[in-house]
Amino acid sequence: MGSAAPRFVRPSHSNPHLMDSRHLRPPCQGARLRVDRRWLLPLPGIAVLVALLGVFEPALAWTGTPAMSSASPAGFSDAIKPFSPIRRHRSPAHGILLKDLTTGRTLYEFQADRRLSPASLTKIMTALVILDYGNLEDTVTVSRAAAAAPKIRLRLRAGQVFRLGDLLKAMLITSANDACLAAVEHVAGPQEQFVLLMNTKASALGLVDTHFSNACGFDGPAHYTTAEDLATLSEIALQHPIFKAFVREERDVIYAVNGGRFYLLRNTNRLLGRLPGVEGVKTGFTSKAGRCLIAKVSQNGNELLLVLLHTSRRWNTAASLINYGLQALENGSGG
Questions:
Q1: I want to staple 45 with a disulfide (CB 3.0 to 4.6 A). Which of 41, 92, 130, 245 is the partner?
Q2: Domain containing 216 — which CATH number?
Q3: Whether the Cβ atoms of residue 233 and residue 125 lie closer than 8 Å to each other
Q4: Is 14 a catalytic site residue?
């Protein structure tokens, strides 16, 4: 596909209308940790502290009593550059859609109809199918296949039992593929049967440029969607109160009902708690899809939805576009 110039949709009175799933770096990169034996804590206490700090893993298991930190995450980058709506030679992403949810108008787009790999943004549709066909109070036994799912994963163990609702939390908050596959197998049996439900729902919703070949977001020639279709899908998903509540959680805890093993879930969306008004939605990353993001923002009565597909500087690009959209609406050029 050619390198089309981005299109800035100018307001008109006649037209009213994956750090992906990677963990945060330690404060001092490359520094070695020295431990004085006099201050060693019991192992369960160490596990809790490491999990809360989130330094090494997006999710961690421990066997003690769960404890949640109320501390706010570190501030977002101070080096965010203002977004320029016209970039004729280079776009910060392969697909972009910035939308005013109040009016339904597109504020900015670039190749929003281009078919691209969505990575774990796939899990938005997976979640909707689970909510359609599953009972969140069901108990689910993790299979060997689910436990062996590629990362990102919680390192669930075959034979562990979880509530379906907790597995849904894990796949949306920390993008865990083992939780995703365990939930999918419980709802529909073979993953192929679940994918059929996903594609049927995509057709019913009018997502004509979307097709899924798996439930968790792995790359494949028949696994694709567009920024435009993802925006439509996200708007529908955010109307579901359970989905909306889960994707805005910065942290949560789930546990195996048959073993007392706790898992701290840490949201892969670094905008949550750092950029005011962010309420989700989902991150994604694979080598083919690049870094992807869907973000929903509410500020001063304005609501924006941003879809970014295959970008290299996900967080600063997202923050710049969100600030651009909010300023446009505050100045009256978007309303």
A1: 41
A2: 3.40.710.10
A3: yes
A4: no
Exactly one of 91, 117, 123, 282 is catalytic; name it: 123
Please pick, among 21, 91, 117, 175, the residue that the annotation labels catalytic: 175
Read off the pLDDT band of 82 (50, 70, 90). low
- What are the phi and psi torsion angles at 65 (to 5°)? -75, 130
For residue 255, tell me if it sits in a domain: yes
> What's the pLDDT score for residue 333?
63
Task: Give per-residue pLDDT as tens, 184-194.
Answer: 999 999 999 99
Catalytic residue among 120, 201, 234, 296: 120
Decide if 258 is inside a domain.
yes
- For the segment 89-139, what is each residue's pLDDT rounded down to a tens digit? 578 999 999 999 999 999 999 999 999 999 999 999 999 999 999 999 999
Tell me the CB-side half-sphere exposure of residue 275, using CA atoms within 13 A. 27
Structural domain includes residue 85:
no
pLDDT digits (tens, 9 = 90+) for 256-269: 999 879 999 999 99
Known active-site residue 120: yes
Does the global pTM surpass 0.85?
no
Domain count of the chain? 1
Q: Is 175 a catalytic residue?
A: yes
pLDDT of 275-292, one tens digit each?
Answer: 999 999 999 999 999 999
In this structure, is residue 17 part of a structural domain?
A: no
